[in-house]
Every structure is written in structure tokens, then in C-alpha cells.
Amino acid sequence: MVKITYSNFLTKGDPQETPVLIVGRLTNLLRLKYQDIKCKLEPRVTEEVFKTAVYSLHPSPTDTCSLYLNLATVAALPTKCSRHNTPSRSHAITRLVQNCSVGVNESIVIVCERSDVFASGCAVARAFPLYSKKTPAVNNENVNVFVEFIIVPSINGKEPEENMELVEITEEELKVLEHASYGIRMTARIVDTPCNEMNVDYFIQEILNVGSALDIKPLIIRGEELCKKGFGGIYGVGKAAAVPPALVVLSYTPTGASTTIAWVGKGIVYDTGGLSIKGKTVMPGMKRDCGGAAAILGAFYVAVKSNFTENLHAVFCLAENSVGPDATRPDDIHTLYSGRTVEINNTDAEGRLVLADGVVYAHRDLKANIILDMATLTGAQGVATGKYHGAILSNNGDWEDFCMQAGQTSGDLLFPIPYCPELHFSEFASAIADMKNSVADRSNAQSSCAGLFIGSHLGFDYPGAWVHIDMASPVHNGERATGYGVALLSTLFGSYCKQPLLNTISPNIDVKEGAPKKLKKN
């Protein structure tokens, strides 16, 4: 088990006893004086060796140089950063930490500007996943990773000053990284855990654990009660599974709140595809279909720990899309919580059904005026925006911009997809119900259409801000979950927190209004 600790100052350490990785953009490493870093290197690394190593770095895209065996290393992040990437180069930080970690108590020194502290710290958390069922080694001991920051002043394209003064950051500001690290690693652990250990019952227990830590008791509606209360989407998807589906809500309502925000997460703990069953090559990995709900759970923990100032509800739509005598059939018609009827033409398009119930509950019952849903919704997302960028769809142009900005600042990248219901929603036309659940033409903005299905139940005339995030691809990197979404939501809603670091990096949202007074054209 790896424990990560964040610090705003460097502690003295001998690389022989505590290995050290020093990582930063080359421009920032070149600005460092040996005096700034020598407490981590002496007596093993001299000033001459350190300077020679830094000047030898040629990141393409990254580069490393050993300072002392494999126990002291300096690493340079990519120099170039395009306008749709994160300036923190957080993805490169995660890879470097994974490659350079020696598996014992160690220090990681991040040399960065203040604006990159949060994303860089979160990147380290992603490098140390929690879930493993490998047989432990005989000497399997807990490992401490100490993440320490050297914060250099921003130069904003100017020539760096010869005698720069390092920027200070307080312990209070760094406290959010402790919470974010916990949230990211918990989220990744849930997503990495197979369904025999993370079914709906187990997921509810994860929610109960977070609720207990925050002194919040969740609302739980499950099984036949879902059917009686009209949650036809969640019930229809999960009714064939051995463990019944559930709608679970965590609510934080501080005194003086004037805005109500709801985060709605897709929590399909396993997706066989239902009777429209997936093949043997695409079904493995479907334990990750709960990534949206897991991210919202992690982000909710961070928000409450950061003294969120407004009403915040986390809505978890939990089900296993299984096969059995009670499974939903293609041609079945379900009435969702919105009251609208859906003809099922693809049981493998189930996430939009559970989320449709979730967003309507958020609007109708929780009275939310800002609703964000997050889901591993479509394979088309990866085709549209790739492995690193989630897809953002919104009825509000300003919130689309906010999400883009928060993605770049947090390292959980986003890119917009078309919001154009008048051109795309006809893909769901049904002769016998209000709509079908899957598109007629899979080549016509498929990821947008999936989001529009959810939005249609909320209503295209919904007066509040609605944001849909499809993160099917960035939820994992290879065989491992990334914890995607926790840093994103923490940054996006940072202005609603009493946390100085989040306040400085979050988009400039009017906290009282919940949305800009002058909206851009949608």
C-alpha cells in the first residue's frame, strides 16, 4: 500500500536512504539553483553533476537523467504544449513517476508554476493505483511517497529573471491535494475492481463509507421500489441481475446556500450488453462502466471536505446490465421517470436510460438549477475526442467554456461535441413510442445523440444549465483506471468551495447566479 503525502517545503534526505525524482518543465529546471534543491541530493550529488544533468536534458517529449544510480533522477516534461493540452503536462508526470518509482519510501519534487500545482499533484496520485489481487511479496510493506513542491514564478512568455524568488504556498492550500488524491485513488480502485467484488451492493457500501466520513446519510431507492416510483430506466436495465438496481443520493445542504447543484453518475457495475449482448473481445473491461458514478463519488468527497458553499447532490444510478429471464428485450417499451415512453431497440444503449431517470430526479425532486451528468456512455466518444479528452455537451455555451478551461487546468481534458437537437434528435424517432433508445444512423454524431437522449428527458427547454460529460475512453489508460473526473469536477466547481487553491484555478463562475448573467448563444 502506497501512502502519498503532500508538502509545501523540502525535507532533508539522502538519496541513498530516500530516493528522489525531480520533475518539471526544462525551462523551470534551468531556473533552479542548486541551493534550492541540495537538501534532497547531498552528499551524493554535487552542484556540478546536477547542473550538467539538467543541461543534458532534451525532452522529446520527455527525458530523464540519473544523478546517482537509480536513486536520484531529474526528469524534464514536454516543452511544447498545444492549445488543447494541459499546461501542467500532467499525463507526462504520471508516466514519469510510474517509470521512475523504485517501490520504496521516496520523494518526488515537482518544479512548477502555482497554476499547475493542483494538476501536478493529482497526476502523481494517478500513478499509484490501489486495487490489486496479485499474491503479495513476503516483505510486502507500506510505502510512503512524499510529494514536495518548488514553485517558480510565472514568466508568461517573458525572459526568466536571473535572481528569481520562489513562490510560497500554504499548508491550507495543499490540503485539497490530500483530499483529491484520496478521491482519485478511490475512484480508480472502484473502476478497477471486478463486478464479483463491486456489484450494486458493494458500490452502495462505498457510498455509505463516504457518507459516514462526511456525516451524511444517503437516500436509497432500489429493487421493486424503483418500479413503483416510476424509475423505468434504472429498473428496466437492472431488473435481470441477481443484485437489484438502485438510485442512491448523497446530499450536502449548507446553511446560506442559494444555488442547487446535482451531479448524476452512470453506475453500470457491469455491462454485458443485455440481450443485445457484447462479443468476447469487447465485453472484457466492462467493469469500468461505473466510471462516471465513481468519479462523482470521489469529487463529492473533495467538495464537502473543501467546504462547498452551495447545495450539492450526488445522484448514483446503479445497475448491472445482465442477461436472464427478466431481462429487457429489444421491442420492449419502458416509461421513464420523465413520463416519456422509450422503445428499446438496443439493450446495449443502457447508460442513457439510467441517466435519464437520474437527471429528471435531480430537476424534479432536488430542484437543481445546475445539473451535470458524467458517464462512460459511448465508444463513439473515443472516436470523436480520443483517449485523453472527454466529450462535453451542454445547453449553455458558457458552461461549455467553463468545462474546457477546467479540463486544461485540472489535467482531465475535455473537448466539445455538437449540441444541435433540432438536427440530431430525430435519430431516435419511433412509430409507437415517444422515442427509441438508440440512433438510426450511427454515423451521425453518435456521441452527441446519446447525450441528447438524456437531455430530452430533462427537456430541451430546461431553464438551468445542463452539462453532459462522456468519458468512456479517458476513464482508463491500458489496463488501469485513471480516476478521471475527480480533478475535473473539483476544479470546475472550485469557486463554490472555501479552498484557496481551488478558488485561484477554477473558472470565473458567478457563485450567486450559478451561471453568467449574460449567456452566450447556444
UniProtKB/TrEMBL annotation:
The GO terms describing molecular function are: manganese ion binding; metalloaminopeptidase activity
GO biological process terms on file = proteolysis
- Keyword Hydrolase in record: yes
The protein's matches in InterPro entries, at most eight in alphabetical order, are given as: Leucine_aapep/pepB, NPEPL1_N, Peptidase_M17_C
> So which domain of life are we looking at?
Eukaryota
Q: What keywords would UniProt list here?
A: Aminopeptidase, Hydrolase, Protease
According to its record, what are the GO cellular component terms? cytoplasm
Question: Into which family does the record put it?
Answer: Belongs to the peptidase M17 family.
Identify this protein by name.
Cytosol aminopeptidase domain-containing protein
